[in-house]
Design goal:
This protein folds into 2 domains: 154 residues, 2-Layer Sandwich (Endonuclease, Chain A); 56 residues, Orthogonal Bundle (Arc Repressor Mutant, subunit A), CATH 1.10.10.10. Strand 1, helix 4 and strand 2 form a beta-alpha-beta unit. The protein is of the alpha/beta class and 276 residues long. The protein starts with 11 loop residues before the first helix and ends in an 8-residue tail after the last helix.
Length: 276
């Protein structure tokens, strides 16, 4: 006996399921999926940081490769990365290399603030980072950073500190990983205070090279008072050719197209006192 196969009519429900969902439903689903992705990424980055800290726990932190510590902490940041650089070349290279890597996942939205002393700029790594990563805000503290050690502040939750200079054969000085909320908060407040008084990298005068600050001020004053090059060169006790080369260097560093503009720019940057 041949069995009968019953072909059912498509139900109204199945017919409706083939229709294109409304844009509101798509937006809701997309929003839910993005939120789930962010939650997963956040959980993964925290897990990575915890695994790294667990692996460092049995070792003196100073013996862990600096690049490994910096890479791990920067890569696990979710909201903010605040950096203090005071001149240690190894630290500067490690931090700039970690920040220069393409951001992935949640790191794309991380706010990066880098605070450094003027000598740090000599290496060129910080300026190179500024050119390639516009999300990284950099400021320079001309007066030094006496109260702040070299540090890496991540999300207001963990701070990697380095105290003391590196010594050949003796490691990078004292290092520590701080997670105590009160200590981290205090360091963040110190950072914020110093940051507020620092100068943006773009506004920082780059008058280095052969000229000392006193010579720069004397030349700028000559430009402002309208001294001829011959008179100014005699006052500076240099040849006319050398004086003009110094003037060209100062104008280039100040981004000025004329001597008058150089004088205005010098006052704006605090290299010369303003005249009322």
């Amino acid at each position: 006996m041949v069995g009968l196969v019953r072909v059912s009519e498509p139900s109204p429900r199945s017919t409706e399921s083939t229709e294109t969902p409304s844009s509101g439903a798509i937006d809701y689903v997309e929003h839910a999926l993005l939120a789930a992705r962010d939650l997963i990424e956040s959980t993964v980055t925290r897990h990575r940081r915890e695994l790294a800290q667990d692996s460092w726990a049995g070792t003196a932190l100073g013996k862990v490769p600096l690049a490994e510590v910096v890479d791990t902490l920067v890569d696990c940041a979710e909201r903010t990365v605040s950096v203090v650089l005071s001149g240690n070349e190894e630290q500067t290279r490690a931090v700039c290399a970690a920040l220069a890597r393409p951001a992935r996942g949640a790191r794309r939205a991380v706010v990066v603030r880098l605070l450094c002393e003027e000598p740090v700029l000599a290496s060129g790594a910080v300026r190179a980072l500024a050119r390639t990563d516009p999300r990284c805000e950099i400021r320079v503290c001309d007066g030094g950073l006496p109260a702040l050690p070299e540090a890496l502040l991540i999300d207001g939750e963990v701070v990697y500190l380095r105290r003391g200079p590196s010594e050949p054969g003796r490691g990078p000085g004292q290092t520590s990983l701080v997670e105590d909320p009160a200590t981290v908060r205090a360091l963040e407040m110190m950072f914020a205070g110093t940051w507020g008084n620092a100068v943006a990298l773009a506004d920082h005068p780059r008058l280095g090279g052969r000229l000392c600050p006193d010579s720069v001020r004397r030349i700028l004053e000559c430009l402002r008072t309208g001294h001829t090059d011959e008179v100014a060169a005699r006052q500076m006790q240099v040849s006319l050719r050398t004086y003009r080369r110094y003037v060209a260097e100062i104008m280039r560093e100040l981004g000025a197209n004329s001597r008058f503009q150089a004088g205005v720019r010098a006052v704006e940057l605090g290299l010369l006192p303003s005249r009322h």
